[in-house]
Amino acid sequence: MIPQSFISDLLNRVDIVDVVGRYVQLKKGGANFQGLCPFHNEKSPSFTVSPTKQFYHCFGCQAHGTAIGFLIEYSGMGFVDAVKDLAQSVGMIVPEADDKIPPAQRAQMQAQSLALSEAMTLAADFYKAQLRTAPAAIAYLKGRGLTGEIAARFALGYAPEGWDNLRAVFPQYDAPVLAEAGLVIDKVDDEGRHIKRYDRFRERVMFPIRNTKGQVIAFGGRIMEQGEPKYLNSPETPLFSKGSELYGLFEARQAIRDAGYVLVTEGYMDVVALAQMGFPQAVATLGTACTTVHVQKLLRQTDNVVFSFDGDRAGRKAARRALEACLPYAADEKTIKFLFLPSEHDPDSYIREFGAEGFEQQVQEAMPLSQFLLREAAGEHDLGEPEGRARVQFDAKPMLQAMAPSALRLQIVRGLASMTQSTPGEIEALFELSKPVAASRRAPPKSKRQEPVGLELKIIRAIVTHPSLALQLDESALEAFRQFGPEQCEHLAHLVVTAQSLGENATFAGLAQQLKEEGEEYDAIIGEIAAAPEPEIDAERLWLRATVRQLKQDVLKAELNQLFSAGLPAEELSVRYRELTARQEMLSREEQSEFAAR
């Protein structure tokens, strides 16, 4: 758990203009910066970045957030990764409760990561330069229908023949970092003694693999002639884990948003060829089965995922593994489909034979997750026999247990029940599904909180815009908020305490980020504040003081009106009356003093 104080301090140190400017071309426009929104297609800029609010806002699609939110939405990073990325950029180290690594060792790890990253960048530049003078490699790519523009977009390269070409790039060819990065191989004898070192990639078209920040972390190399292996990947390194990365995701992010879905394929060439043919929203797993980490990354980019597999036995086996990886994240608002091409085709060959329209039709007709799950469970079992139906239920059980309770799971349960001559309640009880839906009465929906209006809304706006103003609100102010109603008072009090916890240096961006982590209750208000000119804090401070003072006066007046009908003993009535009128007088003097000071 990252402390909220660290998040607030981080957002105070980073400059959102610099962060967004790495990915979006920004131009100064008045007090803000403007550019084309990276989250939707537009021809004229409606995307603004405010250096004073440290917030971005799009007037077109209403996207908004802090520097942390931008990295999450644009790069598909998780919250922790986005925080770590920003922290590293300003020299901060993220505190973690379970971090037992000594500072010296952590610094050494960071230095190693930097050295590996620099080595991969130099190697990528070398391979890219080599492609320009490699006629055979250029002819191969042209034969696959690729243009120079696409090759440049994916930074394709070529590893020439020879055992130690990287010696020209790295004068210290024997440096340990080259082996750690997977660029070279050290050959040893039977007794473990080092014999020689040579380049891992030779005579191959090179596909740089980038992380979500665009840094080269690995390579895939494809042989141009006959030979094995057809594809050679970088080994696992401190930078690269093939079970966590997706080829082409960095290049495809905007296209995924534009298309509304991501297409997951099995190979590098599928991704590049599909981009050439009008499907730039394609990515690929890296020679391994789809993992839960892959699925999480995909669903951060879009709510619609289409897996494309060859129709042969290997393709169906890969599809089954992808299905199992998806089940924990399948939800009512997510759509996951499976596309099976004829066994003689991969996406590259299919689109060349049937065209982009034919392939798009295949995508539209892809099999939904629910249908694929039931088909996998049914298999070759005989549904006309009790034993066959029992085996279908046996095969479906672990898959349904992996799913969270949802309407989608209920629909699959109903489909399975119909298939196996059971009831949905029997299936849920037999499978011991968490929070069964069919077998129990649904709880009534929670009543939605009434939207704040009038004075309550104005107070909320003032505190969210300038969180430091909350420091001037005491217990009596919170008590005065009860005039808005018990629920409204509770929400206002929570907002005040949250803002106060950020201290006197609290910012709109810091509070907005914390409120975002708690839910979407304030999202609309935050968006409106981000889109509006920022009011002067001094004017807001005076307004808030006057407003709270009036609320307190209203409370005292109401209590005085009820005092004489409360049935109190005369002495107690007199004491209480003096207390209330004294507080009234104090508030009046405070008002006069502030007025005189203006």
Q: Could you characterize what this model shows?
A:
This protein has 598 residues and is an alpha+beta fold. The protein has 5 domains: 4-89, DNA Primase, Chain A; 103-233, DNA primase, catalytic core, N-terminal domain (DNA primase DNAg catalytic core, N-terminal domain), CATH 3.90.980; 249-361, Dna Topoisomerase Vi A Subunit, Chain: A, domain 2 (3-Layer(aba) Sandwich); 374-431, Pheromone ER-1 (Up-down Bundle), CATH 1.20.50; 454-597, no CATH class. The protein has helices at residues 4-13, 16-21, 67-75, 79-89, 103-131, 135-143, 148-153, 176-180, 249-259, 268-276, 292-301, 313-326, 347-364, 369-378, 386-401, 407-419, 424-431, 454-465, 475-480, 486-501, 508-518, 523-531, 537-563, 570-597, and strands spanning 27-29, 32-35, 47-50, 55-58, 64-65, 157-159, 184-188, 194-199, 204-210, 216-223, 231-233, 262-265, 282-284, 304-309, 335-340, 367-368. The strands form 4 sheets. The protein has a 5-stranded antiparallel β-sheet with strand order 1-2-3-4-5. Strands 13-12-14-15-16 form a 5-stranded mixed β-sheet, with helices on both faces. A 4-stranded antiparallel β-sheet has the order 6-9-10-11, covered by helices on one side. A hairpin with a 7-residue loop joins β10 (216-223) and β11. α3 (67-75) packs across α4 and α16 (407-419) crosses α17. The longest helix is centred in the first third of the chain and has 29 residues, at 103-131. One of its GO terms (cellular component) is cytoplasm.
